[in-house]
Amino acid sequence: MALSRTALLLLAMAAVSLLSADAALSAPATKVCVLGSGIGGSSVAHFLKQYTCESATAPCIDDIRIFERREKVGGRMATVTIGGDTFEAGASIIHPRNLHAVRFARLLNLNTKTGDDSDSDPKSNVSSSSSWFGIWDGSVFVFQTLPPPSPSSSAIYRKMYPLLNSLVLAWRYGFSLLRMDRFVKEMIERFILYYNDFESRPVFETVEEMLKWSGLYGLTHRTLQEELADAGLSSRLVSELVTVITRINYGQSVSISGLAGAVSLAGSDSGLWLVEGGNWQLAAGLISHTNATLHLHEGIDSISYAGGYYVLNSTKGNSYACDVTVIATPLDELNMTISPPISVPSRSLQHTFTTFVRGLLNPKYFGLNSASEIPDLVGTLELPDIPFSCISVLKKYSEEDMTYKMFSRAQLADVLLDQIFSKRKETVRINWPAYPHYEAPEVFAPIVLDGFHLYYINSFESAASTIETSAVAAENVARLIISRISSPSANAPLIISPHSAEGILHTDL
């Protein structure tokens, strides 16, 4: 029977539809797809493009897609607005010897400020010799530095104040402070090996190789407490000042693994800095500079290896074909299917509950008579009845009106906040799955998850979690991708022209 004209038309339309689908599947795959727009994802995009497009030794990788399930780039670098002012809510401070972050800020012409010039983060208050902080045991302050000089103080006292504060610290902790400083400096000297030139620095396929090469691997197999005992630190320093620092920086005690603990202590150095307006601008600027295609508010539900490329299905119902896929966000709490299945060690994330309050602290809660007697930073000891890790003043509008930032391991209920504060005008709460829960000995996920081209930047985060460690891990992953694409049968070392590497590895601070 002859087909009707209508039937022929329907068949033609179906054929066109099938041809269109086939054409879409056979279209050239996106070179690299990156999951996550934080510092890890933005850095790997930056390094991939710079190390290939500015060098004749490798094909230019300039087709990069970055997927971000949230509505804004930056990952755990984020800000919050309270009282009309903007403050850091996530990754807050950067060490002066974090060379990648230093270079990113310069490359992007971002305005920066040091922690000593800003009240925007409690960690900077710990580091500043001129800051006023106290250590609280739940009942009394067991130690305080000197309150800052009043405007009516003499010029001589204001000049002498930092020295006097140093003497106060030295009187309580003695030579253990010097031993702690030496312990941190030794770790930093090993870490800066990751900025060596490419001829002397290998491309690493595993985190274990990466840490063993720099001499840092052993620190991941012992607790910070064990390492500091061997370094000769007094029990008073460890149980007080060191504990305050680890509780602030990682929300954990001195039973944290040694490398994470050493990195945490480095966060108490002087000269710490941040980007004016928010550190998230580092990620946003790198993505813009790389000219990567950014997919905001589009997460990835599944990754499937299709033999030579990956198919990524998104939360918006879209499918993408990618030669290389880089996961730059923690897999631990990510609801995503990977096929064939991969195997990674079980790891829990340490949640930090950040509470911003505009109001005034209640002095009676701290056993004091006046709010003016409460230090600008209150750190706490590792005791079960203390409900928060720290409270710091972010900004003083008047003696009766301030903005505070609190860290805790659980959400702070309104009833408790009303005990801690005598006045509370505005409250903002954030629950961050901020970093891994560190526990020696650490076990690391693979960098190459499937043996092909599925990479995982956050495997390095089990060693330590900072803006800079993410950038260092991302740079290694970028070099690994390039070397494995350039030499599939053998991972030859990546050689890049001096021009393309200039200013990255030899930054003079």
TrEMBL record:
Prenylcysteine lyase domain span: 162-487
Signal peptide limits: 1-23
Necessary cofactors: FAD
A Pfam short name: NAD_binding_8
Keyword tags: FAD, Flavoprotein, Glycoprotein, Oxidoreductase, Signal
InterPro entries the record matches: FAD/NAD-bd_sf, Prenylcys_lyase, Prenylcysteine_Oxase1
Tree of life domain: Eukaryota
GO BP terms: prenylated protein catabolic process; prenylcysteine catabolic process
Single GO MF descriptor: prenylcysteine oxidase activity
Family per record: Belongs to the prenylcysteine oxidase family.
Protein's UniProt name: Prenylcysteine lyase domain-containing protein
